[in-house]
């Protein structure tokens, strides 16, 4: 296995995710129980779940699940889909399949750490930072300038984690066209797609724009079902999918059969679940707006364009690292400080923190945060 650095986010979560009283930095929306999910299934899928034989499954994924996934895309069919154990396995294997020593990749920052550390373990990587002074805009000219003759991958994530940024559809389409012109694979992390505050801003999926592009998605984030551990890549380049299948033989081999049926149920009921989750975020946002308005001297707040995380600025004199450390130790409120999103590729803001807006009843955590702020400011 390629040597990789410690995963800062997961190391931090190992210490605090299940011990902090108020998990206010969750990257997923409120989940549901198994019985609630099964209630969304038709009789055939409930019977399939109850009568499932617990043997090995197909490496590419359950054919019926892949059919349901393909229906989410305009130009893909089931043969263009391969399933993985979550998005992390998919990202790791895709980078190992697409990149080798002597290659080059371009990665947009800030991002989920493995989006840059996995490519960095394989080849040279150039970062292109979203601009916080321009509402996290992506400068396509900077992407173009970063491309080299040996560039094989351009990696992006919209809606972005941690900023919640959604770029314009015209820019995203232009990015896909640029990659096609240069013979580059666009790797598009789309795990928050479906949670845009304005549905009209929903981006096209990369694999619909280009035969070479790879669209990454998962049941964990927008659907709020991380316990299923089912992710997938959609790509119309069948040779790439075949290489991904062979790479998967060295990791999970196949997905969990029960999880595949449950994922099929969730994706069949995707509209119902996403409507619920968007409504929950819309209900939560005024609560967060009110909190940040009370402490406008301490925070710079902007609601995300999409997804269920935001990346506010902390203005306090002690800095965001000390703020987040004292907050979790003294008040039991967990946030993710900027160091978690430190990039080796680009300068990154040091005064930001990630906060989650997709869990039910955030009032208790915000009340604890309010008490701490009033006591310490």
Which percent range fits the helix content? Answer: 25-40%
Q: Note the total helix count.
A: 14
Low-confidence stretches: none
CATH class wording of the largest domain: Alpha Beta
Global geometry: globular
Give the spatial strand order of the biggest sheet.
Answer: 2-8-7-6-5-3-4
What is the makeup of the main sheet? 7 strands, mixed
Q: Roughly what is the average pLDDT, rounded to an integer?
A: 97
What is the CATH topology of the largest domain? Answer: Aspartate Aminotransferase, domain 2
SSE series: HEHHHEHEHEHEHEHEEHHHEEEHEEEH
Q: What's the number of extended β-strand segments?
A: 14
Assembly status: single chain
CATH architecture of the largest domain: 3-Layer(aba) Sandwich
Separation, N- and C-terminal Cα atoms: 48 Å
Full CATH superfamily name of the largest domain = Type I PLP-dependent aspartate aminotransferase-like (Major domain)
Give a structural overview.
With 377 residues, this protein is an alpha/beta fold. The protein is 39% helix and 14% strand. The protein has helices spanning 8-16, 34-38, 43-50, 63-70, 86-98, 114-120, 140-146, 169-181, 206-209, 238-248, 257-268, 270-294, 320-331, 363-376, and strands at residues 22-23, 81-84, 104-109, 124-129, 151-157, 185-189, 214-218, 231-234, 299-300, 309-310, 313-314, 333-334, 336-337, 353-356. A 7-stranded mixed beta sheet has the order 2-8-7-6-5-3-4, with helices on both faces. A 3-stranded antiparallel beta sheet has the order 10-14-13, covered by helices on one side. A two-stranded parallel sheet has the order 1-12. Helix 4 runs parallel beside helix 11, helix 5 packs parallel to helix 6 and helix 5 packs across helix 10. This is Pyridoxal phosphate-dependent aminotransferase.
